[in-house]
């Protein structure tokens, strides 16, 4: 910035966004001082370096504001965990798959764990069968992020929502908002 720029020549962009061209750094500094603005090096690795005439304080403020907005819009995904056993009954399995589908449709990632005890460690293929069955049952709304693998006495698989699930969630939210709006409209007319 300003006198800290060490290059002999710079590619200058003025405060209007127009490309002035390659000029000596001293001339670029004098142009920025005439306008009571700063000379800021925006691409130091370019040959010659690209400099821009702008109000540095305003630029920093806008950059911080952009970063803050980006953090606000960032989606915070939580990881839900569902634990099963290799000898799970059909009703329990159906109930847990229903919960997994609910989590996926809400936009959460789901860690599906199969817990092995004692001699069950000798029959890891039973756990893998259960996880493959879960994979097939949640296929339309979830995609496998991490393949089944052993971690101690657990076999784990990570499932994340697919793009189709995200659009379904958006449509569901839109429908809910529309229903609430209609309800409010009917209350106002009554």
Q: What order do the helices and strands come in, and which of them pair?
A:
Elements: E1 9-13, E2 19-24, H1 25-34, E3 38-43, E4 50-54, H2 56-73, E5 79-84, H3 90-105, E6 109-115, H4 124-137, E7 142-151, E8 154-161, H5 163-189
The gist of it:
The chain has 190 residues and is an alpha/beta fold. It has helices at residues 25-34, 56-73, 90-105, 124-137, 163-189, and strands at 9-13, 19-24, 38-43, 50-54, 79-84, 109-115, 142-151, 154-161. Helix content is 45%, strand content 28%.
Would you tell me the overall average pLDDT? 85
Number of domains: 2
Under CATH, the topology of the largest domain can be stated as Translation Initiation Factor IF3
Please identify the top-level CATH class of the largest domain: Alpha Beta
- Helical fraction: 40-55%
DSSP strand content: 25-35%
Spatial strand sequence of the major β-sheet: 2-1-4-3
- Order of helices and strands, N to C? EEHEEHEHEHEEH
Distance between the termini: 65 Å
**Over all CA atoms, what is the radius of gyration?**
29 Å
Largest sheet: 4 strands, mixed
Describe the overall structure.
- This protein is 45% helix and 28% strand.
- It has a 4-stranded mixed β-sheet. The protein has a 4-stranded mixed β-sheet with strand order 5-6-8-7.
- The model has no long low-confidence stretch (mean pLDDT 85).
- The termini are far apart.
- It folds into 2 domains: 2-57, Roll (Ubiquitin-like (UB roll)), CATH 3.10.20.80; 79-167, Translation Initiation Factor IF3 (2-Layer Sandwich).
- It has 5 helices and 8 strands.
- The chain is of the alpha/beta class.
- It has helices at 25-34, 56-73, 90-105, 124-137, 163-189, and strands at 9-13, 19-24, 38-43, 50-54, 79-84, 109-115, 142-151, 154-161.
């Amino acid at each position: 910035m300003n006198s800290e720029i060490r290059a002999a020549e710079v590619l200058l962009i003025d405060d209007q966004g127009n490309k002035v061209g390659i000029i000596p750094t001293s001339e670029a500094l004098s142009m920025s001082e005439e306008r009571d603005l700063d000379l800021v090096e925006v691409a130091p690795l370019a040959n010659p370096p690209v400099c821009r005439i702008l109000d540095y304080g305003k630029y920093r403020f806008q950059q911080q504001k952009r970063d803050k907005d980006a953090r606000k819009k960032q989606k915070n995904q939580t990881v839900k965990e569902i634990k099963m056993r290799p000898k799970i009954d059909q009703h329990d399995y159906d109930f847990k798959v229903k919960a997994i589908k609910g989590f996926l449709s809400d936009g959460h990632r789901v860690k599906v764990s199969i817990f092995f005890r004692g001699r069950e460690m000798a029959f890891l293929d039973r756990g893998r069968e259960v996880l493959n069955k879960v994979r097939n049952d949640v296929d339309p709304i979830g995609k496998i992020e991490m393949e089944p693998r052993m971690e101690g006495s657990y076999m784990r698989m990570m499932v994340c929502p697919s793009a189709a699930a995200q659009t379904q969630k958006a449509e569901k939210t839109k429908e809910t908002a529309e229903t609430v709006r209609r309800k409010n409209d009917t209350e106002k007319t009554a």
